[in-house]
Structures are given as C-alpha cells and as structure tokens.
Specification:
Length: 265
C-alpha cells in the first residue's frame, strides 16, 4: 500500500462526505486507502459510509479522544508507506495529494510536507509559522492582537515577510493537511496524547526537526480549507467563556512546559 489517508471526525459528517468524495475523485494513481476515525460523534457516519463509500475503512474510538489520540488510532491501523492526515474540512483538488506524494518521494530528507491552504474564495490562509515566543498564543487568541508590539510579534510568527508563493522549509505547519512517511512515526512516535486539541501539531513538528528531518511548505500543491478559528472569537473575557479558548490555553501551557528550554520571551 502506497498511501493511507486518515480523516478524524467529530460531529462533522457532512464535511467528511465532501472530503472523502474529493479524494475518491482525485487523480491518485497509486494503491491507497481512506481511513475515517470517529470520536464517538453519534451522527450516523458509520452507516452513511457503508452505504455511500463502502471502500472506506471506519474506526470508532468510543469516546472523544481529541485530535492527537484520534489520529493516532488511524495511524496505528494504516497500511500505507506514507500517511496523509486531513481534517474533515479539507477539500482536495484532483492533483493535490499526487503533488505532495511525488515531492515527498523525491526528497528523502523531508519528514513532513504540507500544501498551501486556501479559503473557499481562493484567498490565502497563513498556515506555516515560525516558532512561538512565550506570549505569542495570548496575542493570537485575544484582543491584545491590536496592540503594536503584539502586531509585530504576530507578523514574525505568521511569516508575513514572505508571500507564501514559493516552496520553502519552515519551522512548523498547521496539522490540517499533512503528508509524511510512516517511518517518521516509527522513529519519533505518534502524536503526544497529552494535547487534547491544539499544539499537538506544533509539538510533533518539533520532534521531526529533532530527528534531523525537514518540514516543507509546498506552494505548488493547494487544498481548500473551510476553517474558522473559533478559539479566537472574542476578547480577553473569551478565556473565561469560550471552551475552545480554554483548551487552547491549557495546551499552550503544556507545550511551554515541555519545550521550556527552547522558548524565548
């Protein structure tokens, strides 16, 4: 098996349908499998897939394990030499996965490659980043982003000095759409399951770098990402009222403690 495509679902049945359909209609000309992992959504997804897409493998975790642990269930079951990890809100173009796979196979020093992510109107999403400084997540998720020093830091973090139209090596890439050799997981381990949601991708990229592998943003490959940063809604009071913001801050603190020796203010 050349490729395993893993899609993790939590109450996004309609998006999973569109994601799977686009993959099946793409120009992939290698042996591949699609694995849908469900975190106990109770939305009838298993029955729907059996009826509409019987070739798709389905894994029910039985509870909401979060992003890292849910994807780990799919990775453990995967038979492919390469693993694609897609959020349900990803819509691939016919050549998206082929371009990623061809680049990865041609560059054995690359441990992870990701495409350009676009809004439905084809506007660019900033999805590759420089490493965080200590206060970066707070600036990014609250109204503090309006302050001049926060704007300066966020421009550095988001790599605003680069147009994102060229392929380049980066520090880390948002985990919405990745492709990597399965042997990378064998070498550095799976997602750290202490991160229920947020920072599991940042942490994993740190470990890819530690293993001496490159992380590459492939501008020639693109996908549509139907993304809404719900944890960024609101102001400072959002920390108290928005559950996703609280989860994000909790993951941030875990990440800071784990990688404190690499952090700068």
């Amino acid at each position: 098996m050349e490729l395993s495509v893993i899609i993790l679902n939590y109450k996004m049945r309609g998006l999973v349908k569109n994601c799977v359909k686009a993959i099946l209609e793409s120009n992939l000309n290698v042996p591949y499998e699609i694995i849908v992992v469900d975190n106990n959504s109770k939305d009838g997804l298993e029955e729907f897939l059996k009826e509409k897409f019987p070739s798709v493998r389905f894994i029910q975790t039985g509870k909401n394990l979060g992003m890292g642990a849910g994807n780990n269930a799919g990775i453990r079951a995967a038979q492919g030499e390469h693993i694609a990890i897609l959020n349900p809100d990803i819509f691939v173009f016919p050549d998206s996965l082929t371009k990623l796979l061809e680049y990865l196979k041609a560059n054995p020093d690359v441990g992870l490659v990701a495409p350009k992510l676009l809004n439905p109107d084809r506007g660019l999403q900033y999805t590759c980043y420089r490493w965080h400084k200590f206060w970066t997540p707070l600036f990014r998720r609250t109204a503090l982003a309006r302050l001049w020093f926060a704007k300066k830091e966020l421009a550095r973090f988001l790599m605003n000095d680069w147009q994102h139209e060229t392929t380049r090596e980066v520090d880390w890439i948002q985990g919405s759409c990745w492709l990597l050799p399965k042997k990378v997981f064998d070498e550095i381990g799976f997602f750290d399951e202490r991160f229920f949601m947020y920072f599991e991708d940042t942490d994993f990229c740190r470990r890819v770098h530690q293993a001496g592998k490159k992380i590459v943003y492939l501008a020639e490959a693109a996908v549509i990402h139907l993304h809404r940063r719900q944890s960024a809604d609101g102001g400072l009071g959002n920390i108290l009222t928005n559950r996703l913001t609280r989860i994000h801050i909790k993951s941030w603190l875990k990440y800071m403690l784990k990688w404190r020796e690499t952090m700068t203010t």
